[in-house]
Every structure is written in structure tokens, then in C-alpha cells.
Structure to design on (617 residues):
């Protein structure tokens, strides 16, 4: 029988079979890719500028693959039905100060997917940016930062204790900016604030230095923003060409032409009402701890932070002046950007931005304008590429909330889901952690007070040696464990306060270098050094002090805050004076206090301080 000529040759059949196998593999690969697509459908979309009443957003490969009313959902995609909900770009807090990675994680839990840092340790900034570049930071908010700020010797910013370069003349501006660019700073932050508004005094930069810094920043392709304390400082900086105001002014001033000036300079403004309110003595941020949408994610120390206050304040009239200025800015069409200045007193990473949106609407913005301020406006003006909008090709940083925040701005707190670069944030894990901390705190509240502490007296230094009536006693304390080089010694001396026969003299030197610098003495109320103790039966720490006319500090270490102390400053003179600080001022929980420090902090140079009659009140 003759072979049929219509049968394909074997080599061709082998090739066809191989092609079929490849096609099956391609089909399987396509199916696998489709399974990694998430579709949020039937959702109200705020894309950073406008509302799309109903549509679909596709997430794939960490980015937004499609957005709109007529998006086709591919087979195999994970579908999230979101009728009645609103999808927004992840929020941006455009004024924070980052000291730890936990702050970035906390921000993300509240839907703040990006933060703009206005001053932080340059090494920490570099480390975080490296982690981001390696794709290992999806569990924390994305960071851009000014790194080291520009200030005068002894000026605002230097009190944080970081060893930072300062400026004394315009000729130094170019070198300062060059160094910041080399560090990887995204923009330049400038300080002009002599503290007179708060009834204090610090050196500050001159207008000539400010102008030189702005010019140097622009030559390097960087924007410049300024912390300018007064209305006049703001106007001088605007006339020098600054790109943005990091705050509205703090003084009770007004200029009907302010909005038009800012508009003519094409500058932006970050009001930071959250911190201005605390600064004005309006201590109402703690009300956030009553919000059912926030409470499950707030640790006890978070609540204390929201109740925090400054040791100085301006006035409610100053805050009203800032609100009035916002309305002038809005009428002039100025770009307004949302920022909180967290973690200053009365603020908290992530949560406070939701309050800032409310404060902005109370001052005159519409909800849409406030949402724009916390998304696209911040991203565009700080040149944060690929964020701040819901747009194809942008990072899938998204916030899904119940309700319509374009009508009721508080709906941003009703969080249903958060995505950072396409990965859904595990809020439940944070919630469980908070619940665990709260349970532990409840147990600590029931702990007995330290033995022999009933009277509250710690030390009167009347004996032959330095001792305490309860607790683990006194020891020297410096910033050495944090990498610092400050020094301290202490000894018993005669001639104490109120006619007593003894006191404790503390001497040493503050040497810049650590993130927070300190040198002095530490009292541990627990049985062992830095063991937590329940001293909630008293409300304050009190002592008498005298010494050089320098700024000193009381710092309290509590278990919930780890080894990051809460601090209050005080100034002494040559005569004995009594000082009393309530625990509430520090924003700490008095049933978990590990140590109370008294000494010098963030004021470089040698010091001498004498204290006596230390007690709880």
C-alpha cells in the first residue's frame, strides 16, 4: 500500500506538538498573571482631582492597570465589590519628622501611604531610602525627606541634639545645599524662627542667608520650603522665591494681600493646623481617642501623645489668624497641602492626618479641596513620581473607605482596605497587637505601688551618701547607649534647698552626635534599674534646683514608649527654685514608668545643676 501523501512528516509533527505544549504553558502563565489582578468594582473613585461616581480600578504588578467607568475585568481576577464605598489615592502627610520605622508603619495602618519628612537624621534617611529602592518597604509609608535642615548655630532644630551643620553667612549656602544633594535629600528645608512668638529667644537665619539658600536650591533643581514663624518672615521668604511654607505663620497677624502674594509667587502652603492648635493651647486632639473608627488601632501611649502639650503656647487668637489666612489663600487660588507636623505634641503618625482634613474644612476648604491637598497636590508639588493619583501606571497606593468623604470628610476614617504598591495592608495584625498592649496595660494598672513609696518622697540627700527611699535608686545617665558621647558625674554636696543639709550636684558636658543628647542622673522607681513601676497614686514629679542659666530637661522613660523618652525643659538660675511637672504633661502612663531623668539635654557645652528634695506629688 502506498503511503498517503496528506500525512505530515514526523519532524513537522514533533514541531507542532512542541508548539502546542508551549501554547498550553502560555495559557497557564496568562491564567497565573490574571490571578494576580485585583479588581475593585462599582466603587466611587476620587482620582486625586475629581469624583468618578461609579467605576472599576484594576491592580496588577503593584501598579494601577486601569481605572474608569468602562473597565473590563479579566477572567480569574480577584474581585472586590465596593458599592457604597469610595476609593482614594493613598493619603500623603506632607509635614512629619521621622525618627523610627515604626512611625512609618503606623502611618500606613491609617491609610497614609506617603510621608514628606521635614527634618531627620541623614543616615536614617539613607537607610530607609535604600530599603525602599530594594522593594523591601511595602509594610511602611513611602518616604521623601529634606534630611538635615538649614538653621543658625543654636537655632530651632539644633535642640534635637543631632550634630548638624549650621550657617552664619550667605556664602555658606551653596556648600550646604551641595551637601544635602549628596546626602540624597529630596528638597531643602529652611528655618527662620527666633522663638519670640513663644516668649523665648533663639538665634535664627537672616533674610540674606535665607535668600542665598533658596537660590542655591534652585540651581541644584531642588525646591525650597521654609519654617517661617511670623507673617513677616513668610512674606520675606516668599519675596525671596521660596517654593512653599512648611507652616502657616504662628503670630496673631493679618495681611489682606497675603493670599495674592503667595499666588503671585506660585508657592504652596502647608497649614499644619494640627500642631498650630496644640501650640495655641487648644488641647482637644485627645478627642480622637473617642472615635470608634480609630480606637481599635490606638495604643495607650498613642492616646497620651494625642493629649500632649507644649511647655509654652501662643493663643487661640493666633490660631484664628491662621484660619483667616487659609481663606485668603483659597480665594487667591493658592495650592494648599495637608500636613500634621507629627509627632509633635497633640499629633500621631497616620491618625492625625484625618483630623487635619477636618480642621482644613472647618477653616474653609471643601471636602474635595481637602482630599486634593492630601493626595495629588502634595505629590505634584513635591514631585513624588507615580503617587498621589489613581491613574494608569501609577503605584497602587490606595485607600478604600465606607461612605463618601467628598461630602463628609470624616468618612476617610472608615477604612475598609489599604494597598501599598499593590499589597493589601494587614490592619488586623496591627489591631491584634494593639489589643495585646491594652490587655497588658490593664494588668499593669493593677500592680501595687513600689514598697516604701507611700509618702512620695524619693530623696532629700540628708544622709552621708546619695540614696532613695524606694526603687532602684540613682545612677548616671547619658546618651552613650544611643551612640552619644555626652558626659555626666554626680555627688552629694552641702547647703541644700529650704535650709536642708544636703543636695545632689550634677556636672558634665553635652556633646552633639546622637539623635537625642542628654547627660545627668536617672531615678528608677522599680525594684531594678529601668523596671516599670506603678506610681499612678501620684500625679507629678517635683524637685528644687539651681545652677547655671542653661536649659535643662526632665525626661520620663515609660515601657510603652520603649527607650524613647518624653521630655520637658526648664531653665535654672543661681537661686533655689521649685519645679513641678505633671505626668500628664509628658503624655506618659504613670503606671508603667521605668525612669525619671534630670539633667542637661540638647544644649551643647558644659553644665552644672544642683537638685534637692525630689518627690512625687
Amino acid at each position: 500500500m502506498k503511503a498517503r501523501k496528506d500525512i505530515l512528516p514526523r519532524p513537522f509533527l514533533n514541531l507542532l506538538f512542541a508548539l502546542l505544549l508551549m501554547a498550553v504553558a502560555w495559557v497557564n502563565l496568562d491564567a497565573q498573571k490574571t490571578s494576580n489582578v485585583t479588581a475593585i468594582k462599582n466603587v466611587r473613585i476620587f482620582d486625586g482631582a475629581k469624583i468618578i461616581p461609579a467605576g472599576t480600578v484594576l491592580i496588577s504588578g503593584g501598579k494601577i492597570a486601569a481605572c474608569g467607568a468602562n473597565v473590563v475585568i479579566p477572567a480569574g481576577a480577584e474581585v472586590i465589590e465596593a458599592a457604597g464605598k469610595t476609593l482614594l489615592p493613598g493619603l500623603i502627610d506632607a509635614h512629619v519628622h521621622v525618627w523610627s520605622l515604626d512611625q512609618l508603619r503606623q502611618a500606613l495602618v491609617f491609610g497614609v501611604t506617603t510621608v514628606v519628612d521635614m527634618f531627620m537624621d541623614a543616615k536614617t534617611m539613607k537607610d530607609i531610602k535604600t530599603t525602599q529602592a530594594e522593594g523591601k518597604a511595602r509594610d511602611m509609608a513611602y518616604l521623601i525627606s529634606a534630611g538635615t535642615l538649614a538653621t543658625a548655630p543654636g537655632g530651632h532644630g539644633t535642640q534635637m541634639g543631632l550634630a548638624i551643620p549650621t550657617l552664619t553667612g550667605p556664602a555658606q549656602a551653596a556648600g550646604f545645599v551641595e551637601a544635602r544633594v549628596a546626602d540624597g535629600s529630596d528638597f531643602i528645608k529652611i528655618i527662620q524662627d527666633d522663638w519670640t512668638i513663644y516668649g523665648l529667644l533663639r538665634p535664627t537665619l537672616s533674610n540674606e542667608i535665607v535668600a542665598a539658600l533658596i537660590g542655591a536650591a534652585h540651581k541644584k533643581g531642588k525646591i525650597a520650603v521654609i519654617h517661617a514663624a511670623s507673617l513677616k518672615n513668610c512674606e520675606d521668604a516668599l519675596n525671596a522665591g521660596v517654593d512653599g511654607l512648611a507652616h502657616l505663620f504662628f503670630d496673631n497677624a493679618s495681611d489682606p494681600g497675603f493670599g495674592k502674594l503667595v499666588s503671585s509667587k506660585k508657592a504652596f502652603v502647608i497649614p499644619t493646623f494640627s500642631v498650630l492648635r496644640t501650640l495655641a493651647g487648644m488641647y482637644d486632639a485627645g478627642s480622637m481617642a473617642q472615635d470608634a473608627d480609630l480606637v481599635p488601632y490606638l495604643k495607650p501611649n498613642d492616646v497620651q501623645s494625642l493629649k500632649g502639650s507644649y511647655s509654652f503656647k501662643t493663643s487661640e487668637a493666633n490660631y484664628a489668624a491662621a484660619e483667616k489666612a487659609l481663606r485668603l489663600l483659597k480665594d487667591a487660588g493658592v495650592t494648599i497641602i495637608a500636613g500634621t507636623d507629627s509627632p509633635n505634641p497633640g499629633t500621631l503618625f497616620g491618625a492625625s492626618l484625618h483630623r487635619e482634613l477636618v480642621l482644613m474644612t472647618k477653616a474653609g476648604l471643601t471636602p474635595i479641596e481637602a482630599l486634593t491637598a492630601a493626595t495629588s497636590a502634595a505629590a505634584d508639588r513635591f514631585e513624588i513620581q507615580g503617587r498621589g493619583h489613581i491613574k494608569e501606571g501609577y503605584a497602587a497606593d490606595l485607600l478604600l473607605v465606607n461612605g463618601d468623604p467628598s461630602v463628609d470628610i470624616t468618612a476617610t476614617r472608615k477604612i475598609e482596605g489599604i494597598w501599598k504598591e499593590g499589597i493589601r495592608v494587614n490592619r488586623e495584625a496591627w489591631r491584634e497587637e494593639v489589643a495585646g498592649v491594652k490587655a497588658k496595660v490593664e494588668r499593669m494598672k493593677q500592680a501595687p505601688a513600689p514598697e516604701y513609696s507611700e509618702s512620695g518622697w524619693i530623696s532629700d540627700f540628708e544622709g552621708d551618701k546619695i540614696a532613695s527611699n524606694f526603687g532602684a535608686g540613682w545612677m548616671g545617665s547619658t546618651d552613650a547607649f544611643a551612640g552619644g558621647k555626652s558626659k555626666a558625674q554626680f555627688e552629694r554636696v552641702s547647703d541644700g534647698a529650704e535650709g536642708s543639709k544636703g543636695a545632689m550636684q550634677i556636672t558634665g558636658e553635652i556633646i552633639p552626635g546622637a539623635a537625642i543628647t542628654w547627660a545627668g542622673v536617672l531615678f528608677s522607681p522599680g525594684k531594678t534599674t529601668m523596671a516599670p513601676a506603678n506610681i499612678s497614686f501620684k500625679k507629678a514629679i517635683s524637685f528644687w534646683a539651681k545652677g547655671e542659666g542653661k536649659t535643662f530637661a526632665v525626661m520620663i522613660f515609660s515601657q510603652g514608649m520603649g527607650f524613647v523618652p518624653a521630655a520637658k525643659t526648664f531653665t535654672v538660675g543661681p537661686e533655689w527654685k521649685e519645679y513641678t511637672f505633671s505626668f500628664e504633661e509628658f503624655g506618659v502612663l504613670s503606671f508603667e514608668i521605668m525612669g525619671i531623668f534630670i539633667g542637661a539635654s540638647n544644649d551643647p557645652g558644659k553644665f552644672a545643676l544642683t537638685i534637692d528634695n525630689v518627690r512625687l506629688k
User: Anything to note?
Assistant: Residues 10-35 form the longest helix (26 residues). The chain has two domains: 98-391+428-437, 457-616. The radius of gyration is 29 Å.
